[in-house]
Amino acid sequence: MTDGGLDFGDGVTTAPTQRWAEATTNVSELRDVWGELANHNGRVTDLEAEVESVKAEVRARMLEAAYPSRKSLLAYMRPARWAQLAALFANLALVLWWAVVSCGMGMSPYPGAIVCGIAICAAWIFSVEALFEALDRKGAGE
Q1: Which of 42, 69, 95, 131 could bridge to 116 as Cys pair (CB 3.0-4.6 Å)?
Q2: Which ranges does the record mark as transmembrane (predicted)?
Q3: Is 50's pLDDT higher than 80?
Q4: What are the sequence ranges of the domains in the chain?
Q5: Phi, then psi, of 47 in degrees rounded to 5
Q6: Furthest C-alpha separation in the chain
Q7: CA 44, CA 65: separation in Å to the nearest integer?
């Protein structure tokens, strides 16, 4: 060992400064790799945050699709359907009036009640149809 070299048991005799230079190079390479890893982790964290925001937006859009608006169902009824709904309530009032008047006069309320009942059933059928139509329109988001 005339040159001051050391044998580290690996069969290579080198000067201590050469070994130190190799170790320093390895440490700086490790620091570079560590820095790249930290940058990569930062990007991964940013991507995770972006994924979460996209998930939240998708959830919001799915809820909006399921429940298109907070408007009342009556807002989706067409004007003709409003007339049918008004006719239903008018027929109900007519039946009550007929029952009160006919009973007050001592008459049988049945003939008038049958006619009014038929009118009420027709108005009710159209009103239920209007309700389902409004549900369809609300579901379609019109």
Answers
A1: 95
A2: 80-100, 112-132
A3: yes
A4: 6-66, 73-140
A5: -65, -40
A6: 140
A7: 31
